[in-house]
Design goal:
With 235 residues, the protein is of the alpha/beta class. It contains 12 helices and 6 strands. This is Response regulator transcription factor.
Length: 235
């Protein structure tokens, strides 16, 4: 039997896409709304079995306050956090707030569905490798502060890193395509994947995040990449 769900995310298009995919798999999605001051109240009012709550900054202080409020007023609602690759502190903060699990934004729909079923059953829903990282951090605290820039860089392919550098340099889709020797449609796809992996909603946000975390310094100058096989001008 399908699960009664709510999908709440900063990025409305991502929320609606996930909601649609879950509906196709037989679940009852009550709403797909962007977080706002009343997001927790909406979940409390609708009382789904499971709420998927998206965040782009899992380590930010107070980011999981809506989880605390939901669990206080509707303890039977299982809250699954959707976010980027988190630091162990981010996972710890999510569970401390009362979340039932943590799912990466780029997880396949099958993985999201498995997490939903676990959360509804009252089980912790988090990938083993994320838990291992959290336990490792607790048992062996790092002497150096968490390197967010390096973590974000590891999420991206070399092609996506080049796209991000070009975005930060102010290049539009046409210039990115010309500089990389690919079709504009392919360039747009690369840009959208970069935004999704970084958990941001615009090119400006991506550039700001890359600059703030030092990711651009690590990425270095734009490489001279050979054209991708099969790429050509867009018709």
């Amino acid at each position: 039997m399908g699960v009664r769900l709510m999908v709440v995310d900063d990025h409305r298009l991502l929320a609606e896409a996930l909601a649609s995919a879950l509906k196709l798999r037989g679940h009852r999605v009550l709403a797909a709304a962007a977080p706002a001051a009343g997001a927790a109240e909406l979940v409390i009012t609708r009382a789904p079995e499971v709420c998927l709550l998206g965040t782009a900054t899992p380590a930010e202080p107070g980011i999981f306050d809506p989880v605390v409020k939901i669990k206080r007023d509707r303890p039977q609602v299982a809250v699954l956090v959707l976010g980027p690759v988190p630091s162990p502190r981010g996972i710890a903060a999510a569970f401390a707030a009362g979340a039932s699990g943590y799912v990466r934004h780029d997880e396949r729909i099958e993985g999201v569905e498995r997490a939903i079923m676990k959360a509804r059953a009252g089980e912790a829903a988090v990938a083993p490798q994320l838990l291992q990282g959290a336990f490792s951090e607790l048992l062996n605290p790092a002497a150096q502060p968490d390197d967010e820039g390096q973590r974000l860089l590891q999420m991206l392919t070399p092609r996506e890193v080049e796209v991000l550098v070009r975005v930060a340099d102010g290049e539009d889709t046409r210039l990115i395509a010309a500089g990389m020797g690919i079709a504009p449609s392919t360039a747009r796809t690369h840009v959208q994947r970069v935004l999704m992996k970084l958990g941001v909603g615009s090119r400006l946000e991506a550039a700001a995040l890359a600059a703030r975390t030092g990711l651009l310094d690590r990425a270095g100058p734009v490489p001279h990449s050979p054209p991708e096989t099969g790429a050509g001008p867009e018709s």
